[in-house]
What does this fold into?
Amino acid sequence: MITPQDIIFEFRKYCITHPLRIIADLFYDEKGHLKIEELAKNAWAINTMNAIQRALTTLCSVSEDAYRDMIHNKLPAKAGKDYDDHQLISAFCELSLMNTFIARSSNPKSFKYEDRCNPDSLKNVEFSIEMADFLFHVEVKTSNLVSEDRKIAKALETSGNAIILDARNPRYKEIEEKAQYPVIGSLDRRLIDYLESANQKFRKTASEKEINLLVICWDDRIHQPLMVLKNKKAEGLLTSQSYNKNADGTIKDYPNVDCILINSGYALFKEYVSFLLFDRFSPEFPVDPFFQLFTHNYLINYNLTESRISVIQSIIQQETIIVDEAFAETLPEVSIAFFKDKNHRVISFRQTKIDDLI
It folds into this structure.
């Protein structure tokens, strides 16, 4: 059985700029124990470390292979001699989903890491696990929103504002020609990739009690994937107006994907790696980003049944918003990006209407 000290020693093997290495070096002694004198004034650091230690310990209790892969391969997020922000956030998002499902499972030992649930595929889903009388196969996708932030920031450095199309728009050319600011297109192609990849990894289920769940982790611009999937005006991928078609003109479908959950976990972990998350919460009852309870969650109205909605909500311990076409129609088509704090390159977004811009 691993100990908190074992985890600290592993983090000290990461590159010196890695957030977990920094906390391990600054606030823990040579034996991996917390420096008592740091406790009162650095609660944020202790909460940061405690949260991931709990999640890793839980993971190790059901799969040593999953623990080793996470702590040796995924969490280091190696990029040359440094680490990659997006790779690290992606690892955190995966760990958060695994921790949530394991903690809520009535049979945690049923957890299968990187399960090959489709014998016709060469790729594995993240994990499978029994939840009450349901069997879940879970695939987790994270869009590189760190690189998207950098792209937006670069545009803001020259113009002060940028127009962000939050979903596919047939007026793109017109907007680009008439807009006063740089125009950054939507991320709809990424959603196509996620759907196609998940559909290949899953095998079509024969029962309502077996669920192929695709989880897409996003940040506070969570309305973007909701629109890309379910907004008819944006030719949403899961609507009758989808632009994503087969060679014969029929709309592409994803018969092996049973349910789609969109959460805001990426936003939490962007703050987590920047040591900002726990500043917004009480040290006595801090947020724990490794539980889905603390994220915003949306279920796409796609192959949903009452029993599926109920079990998913019981796992994440909150009611989810069900996103149908009517809901997606209420979401903004476009946002204006600007620096809220230019010194720290903090980007904010103001939602608006296209007709107000051109």
